[in-house]
Design brief:
By secondary structure, the chain is an alpha/beta fold. It folds into two domains: 236 residues, Rossmann fold (3-Layer(aba) Sandwich); 214 residues, Nucleotidyltransferase, domain 5 (2-Layer Sandwich). It contains 18 helices and 20 strands. The strands form four sheets. The protein has a ten-stranded mixed sheet, with helices on both faces. Helix 11 packs across helix 12 and helix 14 packs across helix 16. The longest helix is centred in the last third of the chain and has 13 residues.
C-alpha cells in the first residue's frame, strides 16, 4: 500500500482495476523506489537505460491529474511521445499540435512541452500542475527549472504534488547546477553526504536556499516557512531487465570515456566536454580543487569582494591565503543594502595589512569609499568595464577590458604547465562560475563574455567566481608557492614581513 495519489489515504499503487485500463506498473528496484518515493522533489537516474521515461509516464497516468513533462527542445520529446502511445494505447486522445493527452482514465491530462530559451520559462507561469517532470534536467538552465517547478500546485487537498527530474550526468559545464542542487548525494566533497533515497529538507532563508533539520515549518522574521524535501535515486541499465535482454549494456560499455562512466555507471565525477572557446578549462579547475588545503592559521593576503547589486544576487567575500583560496563567504543582497553595510561586513573578515580588491560597480563604489577612509587596509576599487594596457603571458595579446584580463589571469595561474599551482576550494558553484565564460579575439584583444551574458547563459549570477578573480587579481600582493603553504609556513616566516 502506498500514498501514491492522495495523502492520508492508502490506495493500491501497483494493482490494476477495471476503472484504470492502462496496463503499466514499475519495475522492481530503482523504478519502484522512485514511484513510491515520498520526496517533494526527486532526481532519478544518473546512468542510461534506468527507466526514466517510463517512470515519468507511469506517474502521470497512475498518480496525478494534471502533469507537465518538459525537455529543453520540444523536438526531443519524440521518444517520450512514442513511449506514451505504447503505454496509453486507445485509452486517451493525443493532440500532436498542442502536445497534450486528454480523455485519459481518471480525467487525467498530460502536457508535453519545450523550453529552449531562458525566457520561455514564463510560458508555464501560473499554470497549475500537480506533477512536473523535467526530463534530462542537466540540459536545462537552473533558472528555468527553479522557476517552472515553483508553480507545481493543485486546488485539490487530496491530490499529491511532486516534482520529478530525470537525467544523466552533465556532459557540459552548463549542467553542473544539478550536482550543486543535489550536492548531498552527488558532490564527493559534501560535508554531510546522503544515502540514495534519503530525504533532505530545504528552505529559502533570506534569499538563500538552506538545508534544514526537518520538514517541520518554522518562523523566520515573522514568516512561517515550510521546508520541502528532496532526494536522489540512482538507476542503471542493470535495473531494466528489458534493456539487459537486448544487449544495451554492451553498447554502453563500448562508449569512450568519460561517456562510458557517465552513461553506464551514472558517474557524476567524470569529465565534461569543454567548449573550444571556454576561457578556463574545467579540468584545470578540478586539479586546483584537488590541491586545496584548509588555510587555517595562515595570513590572509588578499580579499576579493563582489558586491551584490540587489535582487537575487549575493555579496561574496573570497579570502586568499597565499596561493590558497578559502571557501567563499556568501551573503544575500538583502544583508548588504548599502555601501556602509558592505564595508562593515568586509572589515569583519580582514586583518591589518590585508589587501582588498572590491568591485566598485553600483553599491560597491560606496563601500570602496568607506573602506578607503580607514588606514589599516590597502583597498583597490575595481571597475571591470575599464580598459587595461596589460598583455597575456606571450606579450602579444591585449585585453578588451579589465574583466577579460582578470579571467585570463586566472587561466594563466591555473595552467598546469606554466601556472602557479594555486589551490581552489572544492565546490560545484565555483567550478561552474569559472568555467562558464567564453572568449573571442577582437580588434581590442581578448574579449571575455560580460557578467550579464554569463548570467543569461547559466541562469544565475557568477558572483562566487567573480570574487575569486578579484582575490587573485594581478595588481594585488604576490602570493606564496603552494608547497610552502603545505609546509605550514606563514608569510611572515617566508619573507620576514
Amino acid at each position: 500500500m502506498e500514498e501514491c495519489c492522495r495523502r492520508g489515504i492508502a490506495i493500491p499503487a501497483l494493482t490494476q482495476s477495471k476503472a484504470d485500463p492502462i496496463h503499466w506498473k514499475p519495475l522492481p528496484g530503482a523504478q519502484t523506489q522512485g514511484y513510491e518515493c515520498e520526496a517533494d522533489e526527486l532526481f532519478y537516474g544518473g546512468a542510461a537505460g534506468g527507466g526514466k521515461t517510463d517512470l515519468a509516464i507511469g506517474l502521470a497516468t497512475k498518480c496525478h491529474k494534471r502533469s507537465l513533462i518538459l525537455r529543453r527542445e520540444a523536438t526531443q520529446l519524440r521518444g517520450i511521445i512514442e513511449r506514451s502511445r505504447e503505454i496509453i494505447g486507445d485509452n486517451g486522445r493525443f493532440n500532436e499540435v498542442l502536445g497534450i493527452w486528454r480523455d485519459l482514465p481518471g480525467a487525467r491530462v498530460i502536457e508535453l512541452g519545450g523550453c529552449p530559451h531562458e525566457s520561455d520559462k514564463r510560458k508555464y507561469q501560473g499554470r497549475p500542475h500537480d506533477l512536473i517532470v523535467v526530463d534530462e534536467a542537466p540540459e536545462m538552465l537552473e533558472s528555468q527549472v527553479v522557476f517552472i517547478i515553483g508553480w507545481a500546485r493543485t486546488e485539490n487537498p487530496d491530490q499529491r504534488v511532486r516534482v520529478l527530474l530525470t537525467g544523466n550526468p552533465p556532459t557540459t559545464t552548463d549542467g553542473l547546477w544539478v550536482i550543486r542542487r543535489y550536492a548531498a548525494w552527488l558532490d564527493e566533497h559534501h560535508p554531510n553526504p546522503a544515502m540514495p533515497g534519503e530525504l533532505r529538507w530545504y528552505a529559502v532563508i533570506d534569499g538563500v536556499e538552506t538545508e534544514v533539520a526537518s520538514g517541520d515549518p518554522f518562523i523566520h522574521d515573522g514568516e512561517e516557512i515550510q521546508p520541502k524535501s528532496r532526494t536522489f535515486i540512482p538507476a542503471r541499465v542493470d535495473d531494466n531487465p528489458y534493456y539487459m535482454a537486448t544487449g544495451y549494456k554492451a553498447q554502453l560499455q563500448a562508449m569512450p570515456e568519460p561517456l562510458r562512466s557517465q552513461m553506464l555507471y551514472g558517474d557524476f565525477t567524470a569529465g565534461t566536454d569543454d567548449d573550444p572557446w571556454q576561457v578556463i578549462p574545467t579540468e584545470w579547475v578540478r586539479q586546483a580543487q584537488k590541491r586545496w588545503i584548509d588555510p587555517i592559521d595562515m595570513y590572509c593576503d588578499c580579499v576579493g569582494v563582489d558586491v551584490a547589486r540587489g535582487g537575487k544576487d549575493a555579496t561574496v567575500i573570497a579570502k586568499r591565503y597565499g596561493a590558497v583560496l578559502a571557501q567563499p563567504l556568501k551573503y544575500p543582497g538583502s544583508a548588504t543594502p548599502d555601501g556602509d553595510a558592505v564595508a562593515q561586513l568586509v572589515i569583519t573578515h580582514v586583518q591589518a595589512g590585508t589587501w582588498i580588491n572590491i568591485d566598485v560597480i553600483g553599491v560597491g563604489s560606496s563601500a570602496y569609499d568607506t573602506l578607503r577612509r580607514t588606514e589599516r587596509y590597502a583597498v583597490t576599487g575595481v571597475n571591470v568595464a575599464e580598459g587595461t594596457k596589460a598583455v597575456d603571458r606571450s606579450g602579444k595579446l591585449g585585453f578588451a577590458n579589465l574583466r577579460s584580463q582578470l579571467y585570463w589571469n586566472m587561466r594563466e595561474l591555473l595552467d598546469p604547465v606554466y601556472g602557479e599551482n594555486i589551490a581552489l576550494p572544492p565546490g560545484q558553484e565555483l567550478l561552474g562560475d569559472l568555467c562558464s565564460a567564453k572568449w573571442s579575439l577582437t580588434m581590442r584583444g581578448i574579449q571575455v563574455q560580460s557578467k550579464d551574458e554569463i548570467k543569461a547563459k547559466i541562469g544565475r549570477s557568477p558572483d562566487v567566481g567573480d570574487a575569486a578573480l578579484l582575490a587573485f587579481a594581478p595588481f594585488a600582493k604576490p602570493f606564496e608557492a603552494t608547497d610552502m603553504l603545505r609546509a605550514g609556513k606563514t608569510r611572515e616566516s617566508i619573507r620576514g614581513w
